[in-house]
Amino acid sequence: MLSFRRKKHRKDRATESAESTESMPERGEAPEASEPAEPSRTIQEEGAPRTGWLIRLHSGLRKTGSGFSSLFLGRKAIDEELLEELETLLLMADVGVEATQCIVDNLTERLKRNQLADAMALQNALRDEMIAILAPCTQALVIDTHPYVMLTVGVNGVGKTTTIGKLGRRLQDNGYEVMLAAGDTFRAAAVEQLKIWGERGDIPVIAQPTGSDAASVIYDAHQAAFARGIDVLIADTAGRLHTQSNLMEELKKIKRVLSKQDSSAPHEVLLVVDASTGQNALAQARQFHAAVGVTGIALTKLDGTAKGGVIFAIAQQLGLPIRCIGVGEQLEDLRPFTAEEFVDALLAAPAQESAAE
Length: 357
What we know:
CATH architecture of the largest domain: 3-Layer(aba) Sandwich
Distance between the termini: 25 Å
Shape: elongated
Number of domains: 2
Number of helices: 14
Strand order of the largest sheet: 1-4-3-5-2-6-7-8-9
Order of helices and strands: HEHHHHHEHEHEHEHEHEHEEHH
Oligomer: single chain
Number of strands: 9
CATH topology of the largest domain: Rossmann fold
Helix content: 40-55%
């Protein structure tokens, strides 16, 4: 969950920044940043009502939710067939074998203890079991040092750069001074895309020409963040397959370079995963976590073909904090993750969605 302990207005930060810069050791001239332009008018400046976001989340998970609601509709007694159908639905929803087995075993145990009287009680118990898996992963992101460095990682096409832009704007709206680092130096389009997000959010972006050393770009950005009194530095990185050992080594290099300036940096390694990739997202999380020590998950593209269940597999097997989920392309479509809200959207019946609209 995204939760920010300290909030400041820009003029307060400007005063504090000037004071801290005067007492700061000489670091040399800060690298040039792209000057933010006026925010783009094509992006909504104010976040949409939360109810609108919930409708999009319900809609994105509609297929999975319809399956669960249909399973319990009109059923009264709990029998072996119902439990088997539930197990099949969980597996088809990308919940994964281990998490599915855990849920079904716990429900079966409740049934043996006569704690479940009918199918409705089973449905409520299913909700409880799902929340129990996800609740430990609903952890606040506490920004307790400055600059707080967030390193974003993930494979190609998961929406890293878009997530960075949205996250930067949310932080800024909460009173933080934010800077972005264009660490994806393999693609010219990636640098330009990040600059566009910076312009939309009025956030400075540190960038170098395509082909530059990514660790060098992020190092320069870190220096600039120190010099300018920035609260949060969010660094983009090139997309890479979790099986590409040479590119995974580059991430380790970036971490080493950051730690030379601040032994505790990066303070957050945020893995962005595409919910529509199913159990492959779990494999990615495993490999990235082993290589660079992932500290948080951002689950994207829940507005498309995603079944949504892989989040349970990641939570159950890796226990990594789930910071946020994305349901669209707009700035307001990235939201903090809460277990209850997600499970209720996943299990929602079509009738409930229509009522919400």
